[in-house]
Design goal:
Two copies of one chain form a homodimer. The first copy, chain A, is an alpha/beta fold. Chain A is built from ten helices and eight strands. In chain A, the strands form two sheets. A five-stranded parallel sheet of chain A has the order 2-1-3-4-5, with helices on one face. In chain A, strands 6-7-8 form a three-stranded mixed sheet, covered by helices on one side. The longest helix of chain A has 25 residues. The two termini of chain A are 36 Å apart. In chain A, 53% of the residues are buried. Chains A and B meet through helix 6, helix 7, helix 8, helix 9 and helix 10 of A and helix 6, helix 7, helix 8, helix 9 and helix 10 of B.
Chain lengths: 278, 278
């Protein structure tokens, strides 16, 4: 297959690395930054040395590894540049907005299948690209009504081929609701925790693994995550409210000195967390 | 040195393992559970096969690896059983309550130096004991006014000997304030996050590393952490309020569609998190 990756950041670069390592595909790249493109070529991740306007038109598969709004912009600008039969997918962390817009933009002879690999790094840029982040991770597809089954299966196979453990199909609405809880809320929590620390404390002396783990994602890409939060504001605000209600139950039990109530909340959490590992 | 460890749970067992591996100490154990004691002996962690009432009276160092209230109870019951010159320390995750009580309980010829190794596991019991958790971790001491300098130095040396990276001295008040933010609040957040998930969601398909990391500590020891929370309620409730205020700033920016405000909160968090790694 001839695969073109649009956007060679940490995720696009990781896709290029993983696909190139399979030995089964020809991987090309497009990026607005010439240095990134040169780096991708010198790392052996892509076959082209510069942006090749023709490569898009000969691609069997196009993977859009750019920010959510840029996915829609790219599809709008290049709607007539794809080869008939081309299968396009993206990696954006929100799917409802993408699904709503993309369906209307493209001609019938290309198939856009929205996707979301649940894998990332706190670092930005091709320097940090690594196919290791895909190993054992989850991959979600939110197919559109017109998507052709063989094309969906093609992306599923590709995901498994590069190391993902499981590819699931889910509606864009369910995706955005769940991802608000499992990804966006945890990022908001990490940011709020770090920002709530008071200056002047000897915090560094008192941290263990739980604080490090919890705040790792506070090394956040501000522009990307701002876009993700804003594009999923309704689901995220609802997840925040649900979370605050549970945090209040804990605080109320502590304030009331009600140890049995607190222990019950803890036991519920421990049981629910165990289920996640199954 | 003859060292007696009181309480052979996951932490006491880990201490026994680490101290025994140094080859420089004779390690004995006391535990209310005979099976635990037999297991510790069969694992080669302690030299005694059963509870030896005499071992306490010949110990140079006693390490209390029991829950906070049990530390105070043990000191009260055994206040006259220690050898003159004995150095006693504990590992409880709260220090103000310990410091206030312990100082008044003990005779002048023994030295109790409250401590807190910032290392633990989500699992309970001696089966999960591992000296690996100490490697590179922080260790805090909150010395009492009457503590003798050579005895404090003795515990510091012991901590470094078994793999801790840094031993710091801090007041019990500062300890409890900071640990509320770095340890108790993160545990409350993990519990609240897991408990706020709605039933029926295909959550398992949508989790990545951040959710796993953040909720790891939700596999919580309900009895221990309830005691820790209740014994440090003032500091914890204050940390919760500070955190909620920051979370509200994020939610407010999302609700208002104010991307620049959100990005500013993100950049602040990323910078503060980077500092922690320095």
């Amino acid at each position: 297959m001839k695969i073109v990756i649009v956007g060679l950041g940490v995720i696009g670069g990781s896709f290029a690395m993983a696909l190139q390592k399979t030995g089964a595909h020809e991987v090309f790249g497009i990026d607005s930054n010439d240095e990134t493109l040169a780096k991708a070529y010198s790392l052996g991740l892509i076959k082209n040395t510069g942006n090749d306007p023709g490569s898009l038109g000969s691609a069997d598969i196009v993977i859009l590894c750019v920010y959510p709004k840029a996915v829609i912009d790219f599809l709008r600008v290049h709607r007539n540049d794809f080869k008939p039969g081309c299968v396009i997918t993206d990696v954006a962390g929100i799917k409802r907005a993408i699904a709503e817009h993309a369906g209307r933009l493209l001609p019938d002879n290309v198939d856009f299948i929205p996707g979301h690999p649940i894998a990332g790094r706190e670092k930005m840029g091709i320097t940090y690209a690594s196919d290791a982040v895909f190993k054992g991770a989850n991959y979600l597809l939110t197919p559109l009504p017109g998507n052709r089954e063989p094309n969906i299966a093609l992306i599923e196979t590709l995901a498994l081929e590069i190391g993902f453990r499981r590819v699931s199909r889910i509606s864009p609405e369910a995706h955005d609701e769940i991802i608000a809880h499992t990804s966006q809320l945890p990022h908001a929590m990490a940011v709020a925790l770090i920002n709530s620390n008071r200056d002047g404390r000897a915090t560094g002396l008192c941290i263990g693994d739980s604080y490090r783990d919890l705040t790792r994602v506070a090394k956040i890409n501000a522009v990307l995550w701002s876009e993700l939060f804003m594009s999923n504001s309704e689901c995220l605000l609802s997840a925040v409210e649900d979370f605050k209600a549970q945090l209040d139950l804990i605080a109320d039990a502590v304030r009331a000195g009600d140890a049995p109530a607190l222990e019950q909340l803890f036991r519920r959490a421990a049981a629910r967390r165990e289920q996640l590992d199954e």
